[in-house]
Design goal:
Structural class: mainly alpha
Strand content: under 5%
CATH class of the largest domain: Mainly Alpha
CATH architecture of the largest domain: Orthogonal Bundle
CATH topology of the largest domain: Tetracycline Repressor, domain 2
CATH superfamily of the largest domain: Tetracycline Repressor, domain 2
Number of domains: 2
Radius of gyration: 20 Å
Order of helices and strands: HHHHHHHHHH
Number of strands: 0
Distance between the termini: 65 Å
Largest sheet: none
Amino acid sequence: MIDSTTDKRQTAAKDPENTRGRILDAALAIFSRKGYHEASVDEIVEESQTSKGSVYFHFPNKQKLFLALVDKFSDLLEKRVRESVARETESFKRLNAALTACLETFGQYRPLAKIMLIQAMGLGSAFEEKQMEVHNRFAMLIKEYLDEAVALGDINPMDTDVVARAWMGAINEVIINWVYTGQPEPQRIMFTLRPLLLRSVGGHEENQP
């Protein structure tokens, strides 16, 4: 009789995408508990109930696995932001929805976020390039919504590329501090950051219903 672990490994071998997903889920759990440097591939193998060969087939080394996890988190964050924004029709309400989705997602995955935003700084050029890629990705997402607001006449025409990067820098700095220290609390972040961003594009809190 085949035990459950063997059965799962045989099933995984027939479904590489399922295997890859399980490895990433396991890596998320292990990295979140132990940090990047203390986590081992053996622990990820055990957590995912796969094999070391399967892990190295999908990810040549621990760094590649971690970078893939950064991509997975970024995909999730963008998805949640877009879904939250899509439920709003007014530009200023969209800002509120986007910030809320961002804080909720980082709060849900705070241990991993702490590794990605703080501990991974010393992982070398590969992570620095990934970090720049992620920053550009979300700066372009902000620019997209700013361009829509300009097109709708909600804000005056401006260099949305520069403004988007300024917003990205401000949001990133606040979130890094929050992830690391737990301060300030999300309500205080929203109360302070939202009007600051609005004023930078000519909007005001009193425009909100």
